[in-house]
Amino acid sequence: MINIGFRKFGHVSEYTILAMLLWRALRQGPTLRARLSILFVATLLGCAAFAAGDEFHQSFVPSRTPSPMDVLIDICGALAGLAICWLFARRKRVVATP
Predict the structure, then answer these.
(1) Are the C-beta atoms of residues 47 and 21 closer than 8 Å to each other?
(2) Fewer CB in 10 Å around end: N or C, the chain?
(3) pLDDT, tens digit, for every residue of 33-71?
(4) Residues 6 or more apart whose Cβ sits within 8 Å of residue 6
(5) Are 73 and 5 in contact (CB under 8 A)?
(6) What span, in angstroms and rounded, lies between the C-alpha atoms of 81 and 43?
(7) Residues 6 or more apart whose Cβ sits within 8 Å of residue 39
(8) Are 55 and 67 in contact (CB under 8 A)?
(9) How far is it, in rounded angstroms, from Cα 45 to Cα 51?
(10) How far apart are CA 81 and CA 39, in angstroms?
C-alpha cells in the first residue's frame, strides 16, 4: 500500500509541475495573456492529452499496464498546479490594480 501511495503521489506531483510549467509557457502568448480562463482550459487540456498519451504509450510496454485511473490522478495533479498558478495570477492582478 505504501508503494502504491508513493507512486500515485509521484503522478500528482509530476503533473502539478507540468501544469505550472505549461501555464508559464502559454502565459507568454499574446492571445492567452489577457484571459486567465482560456489559459486555464488550454493548460488543462494539454496536461490531459499528455496523460492520455502516456497511458497509451504504456500499453505497448510489456512491463507496464495502462490505467484510466492514472489519467484521472494526473488530471487532479494538473488541477492542483493550475490552482496554484491561478491564485498567484489573481493575486498579482489585485496588487497591480490600485
Answers:
(1) no
(2) C
(3) 567 888 899 999 999 999 999 999 999 999 988 889 999
(4) none
(5) no
(6) 10
(7) 23, 26, 27, 32, 33
(8) yes
(9) 10
(10) 13
Domain extents in the chain = 33-98
Q: Nearest-5° angle of CA 71, CA 73, CA 79?
A: 105
Amino acid, single-letter form, for residue 3: N
Residue 31 above 90 pLDDT?
no
Model confidence at 24: pLDDT above 70: yes
Buried-state track 53-80, b at ≥16 Cβ within 10 A, e below 16: ebbeeeeeeeeeebeeebbebbbebbbb
pLDDT at residue 30 greater than cutoff 60 = yes
Q: And the C-alpha cell for 5?
A: 501511495
